[in-house]
Task: inverse folding
């Protein structure tokens, strides 16, 4: 590599002299010797000039230099150049190679270009998969763009409900200072496709609120249709089709909807039927009693109530037994431990919180162990059916913390304290061991930091401070589309 020509070409690139940079960088190459650094910067200069085929060839030359590395960034730039040159099939191959490079720090750039390539090929499904991968990439600073493209793919696939969720998520990733009108408009169209007219009207209102977005004819037609549908639902008036059917004699209810064939006859007995009117009042009362008895028998109301109560009792009993076996009770172990320390602080008797078998001297020993005025926080509980252990940390009023282990035994459905033991931790032995053993983590971290610097997004896309970047290539390609 001619270093002097390379430095001159790099200087021309920094000054925006793309043609001069290309000429000087061509002179920096020596024969067929691969030079990834020169070809990378040369490819970016070609992208600035709009010579996308030449840029793709330059990036391919840079990829041939295995010592240069940066395969992900170079493949991404080459895929963008091929896409801008109208060669989407080759772009898919290059961009797939870019996302396969695990060391590539910003794969979302390749995924976005890959989605655009699939769209040019008419493969909407794979385009949506690529946009989704770009949206969930943690290195993507603006996932709203990828989510909007994903929503567009869902709309073309006829999945309006999924498109709604994609657009709503895109709005979550934008700020009020950003232009959200286009996303609101796309969301409104998705609502219309999902037959959610009220929400569609609201979304269209958001999109046109500031007057900067002019709706397309299709979007305006959808907005008008949504407002008309909402108004029709609100007024609850029959549609024009219903009116035409009524005028033609359809839709009338001249027949009984419960008996369209008239097979049931008269619902009320005919006056000529003297048998009905000859029934006495006593007969009616007797018949009513019989009917009520039959209805009660069929309903089994008492049995149903009994079964429900029995089921609830069994449910409560089963839950209580399960809690008892697994060491739960009332009051809980945590509350008993906190009440014990609180009683010490208040100067109250500790007897209600300890087991009845402890003597006065043993209770006094527990009281001497517990600090006064400490704030207690429970850090863990080991539960069993009859015994439990509570681990807690007391923040002392004089400063500092002290760990305690509280042993408890079952007392009915609750718990009582059996013993309180302070826990003292010493790290002297550990520190002496650490001082003897050499710390190799610093050396490994130095090596890792060196490798991280090589994999940094800035260094992955830039050969030098002014050297080729994936963003430069993307900007040039976007400006020509």
Result:
């Amino acid at each position: 590599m001619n270093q002097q020509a390379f430095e001159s070409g790099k200087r021309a690139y920094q000054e925006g002299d793309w043609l001069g940079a290309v000429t000087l960088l061509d002179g920096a190459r020596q024969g067929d010797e691969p030079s990834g650094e020169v070809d990378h910067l040369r490819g970016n200069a070609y992208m600035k000039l709009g010579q996308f085929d030449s840029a793709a060839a330059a990036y391919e030359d840079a990829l041939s230099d295995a010592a240069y590395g940066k395969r992900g960034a170079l493949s991404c730039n080459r895929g963008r150049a091929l896409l801008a040159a109208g060669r989407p099939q080759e772009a898919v191959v290059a961009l797939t190679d870019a996302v396969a490079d695990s060391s590539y720090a910003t794969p979302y750039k390749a995924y976005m270009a890959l989605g655009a390539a699939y769209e040019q090929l008419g493969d909407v499904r794979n385009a949506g998969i690529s946009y989704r991968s770009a949206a969930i990439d943690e290195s993507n600073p603006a996932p709203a763009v990828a989510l909007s493209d994903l929503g567009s793919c869902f709309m073309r696939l006829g999945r309006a409900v999924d498109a709604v969720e994609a657009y709503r998520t895109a709005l979550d990733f934008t700020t009020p200072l950003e232009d959200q009108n286009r996303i609101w408009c796309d969301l409104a169209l998705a609502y219309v496709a999902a037959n959610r007219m009220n929400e569609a009207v609201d979304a269209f209102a958001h999109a046109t609120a500031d007057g900067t977005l002019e709706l397309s004819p299709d979007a305006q037609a959808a907005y008008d249709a949504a407002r008309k549908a909402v108004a029709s639902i609100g007024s609850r008036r029959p549609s024009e089709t219903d009116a035409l059917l009524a005028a033609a004699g359809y839709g009338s209810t001249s027949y009984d909807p419960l008996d369209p064939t008239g097979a049931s006859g008269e619902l009320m007995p005919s006056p000529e039927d003297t048998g009905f009117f000859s029934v006495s009042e006593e007969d009616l009362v007797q018949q009513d009693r019989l009917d009520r008895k039959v209805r009660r028998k069929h309903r089994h109301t008492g049995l149903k109530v009994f079964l429900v109560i029995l089921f609830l009792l069994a449910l409560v009993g089963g839950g209580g037994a399960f809690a008892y076996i697994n060491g739960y009770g009332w009051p809980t172990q945590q509350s008993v431990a906190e009440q014990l320390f609180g009683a010490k602080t208040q100067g109250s008797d500790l007897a209600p919180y300890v087991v009845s078998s402890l003597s006065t001297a043993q209770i006094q020993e527990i009281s001497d162990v517990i600090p006064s005025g400490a704030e207690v926080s429970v850090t863990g509980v080991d539960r069993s059916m009859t015994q439990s252990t509570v681990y807690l940390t007391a923040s002392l009023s004089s400063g500092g913390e002290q760990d305690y282990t509280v042993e408890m035994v079952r007392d009915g459905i609750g718990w009582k304290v059996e013993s309180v033991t302070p826990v003292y931790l010493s790290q002297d032995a550990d520190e002496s061991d650490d001082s003897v053993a050499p710390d190799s983590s610093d050396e490994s971290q130095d090596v890792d930091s060196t490798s991280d610097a090589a994999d940094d997004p800035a260094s992955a896309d830039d050969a030098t401070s002014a050297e080729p970047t994936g963003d430069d290539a993307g900007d040039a390609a976007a400006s020509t589309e």
